[in-house]
């Protein structure tokens, strides 16, 4: 791949957005409840974030943290959130759905993507709970709206999942899907990780927050150092 390496950073507040504007980040994932893995932010939060951000924003569409399986009513809520987020001017949404037997839920995914008009879509780390990651990747190729898969290679951290991430990155060659590696990446390990996997997009959260606390403020200098490692 010859594409520019890109850095996506999680934001949970308008203060985060303002810090990210001039930090060197390439894209924002806007979430609430980061301690629960990220849930859908409020309409007011999305609206204000779009107003003040100089970066493209992808919004988490996840109504609860109990599982990646959703009821009919859950899916109705998610569909409404997608419509609202698109109307507010976000660049994309982040979602993921699995069946009881840990396969991509193609029926639910089709329903949700049917609400997408011009948004880009990231399939989030529900992917890491799929029973077979390469099978899941092949399934997601059937959905043209999906252009990113956020994954740690099926492991707790991306460093632990390097072997699978390298395979997925290679599998993505010649397709529209890009592998977005996340979980456990920071300025100390990211250069070696990129060299080992060939991955060209990374996603960070606590790594760029004060003392790497989930509730810590974003430290712009930490983002700049990670971005430098991507050059």
TrEMBL record:
InterPro entries: CutC-like, CutC-like_dom_sf. Its main location: cytoplasm. It holds the Pfam family CutC. Keywords: Cytoplasm. It is found in: Cytoplasm. Belongs to the CutC family. This is PF03932 family protein CutC. It comes from Paenibacillus zeirhizosphaerae. The lineage of its organism: Bacteria, Bacillati, Bacillota, Bacilli, Bacillales.
């Amino acid at each position: 791949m010859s594409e520019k390496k890109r850095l996506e950073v999680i934001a949970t507040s308008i203060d985060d957005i303002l810090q990210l504007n001039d930090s060197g980040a390439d894209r924002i994932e806007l979430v609430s409840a980061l301690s629960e893995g990220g849930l859908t932010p409020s309409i007011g939060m999305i609206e204000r974030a779009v107003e003040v951000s100089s970066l493209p924003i992808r919004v988490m569409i996840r109504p609860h943290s109990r599982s990646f399986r959703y009821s009919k009513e859950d899916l109705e809520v998610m569909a409404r959130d997608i419509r609202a987020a698109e109307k507010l001017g976000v660049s994309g949404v982040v979602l993921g759905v699995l069946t009881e037997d840990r396969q991509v839920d193609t029926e639910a995914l089709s329903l949700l993507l049917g609400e997408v008009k011009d948004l880009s879509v990231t399939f989030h780390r529900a992917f890491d709970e799929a029973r077979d990651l390469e099978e899941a990747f092949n399934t997601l190729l059937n959905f043209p709206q999906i252009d990113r898969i956020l994954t740690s290679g099926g492991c707790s951290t991306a460093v632990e999942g390097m072997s699978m991430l390298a395979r997925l990155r290679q599998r993505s060659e010649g397709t529209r899907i890009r592998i977005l590696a996340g979980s456990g990446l920071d300025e100390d390990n990211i250069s070696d990780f990129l060299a080992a996997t060939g991955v060209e997009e990374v996603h960070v959260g606590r790594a760029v927050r004060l003392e790497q606390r989930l509730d810590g403020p974003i430290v712009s200098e930490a983002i700049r150092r990670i971005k430098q490692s991507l050059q």
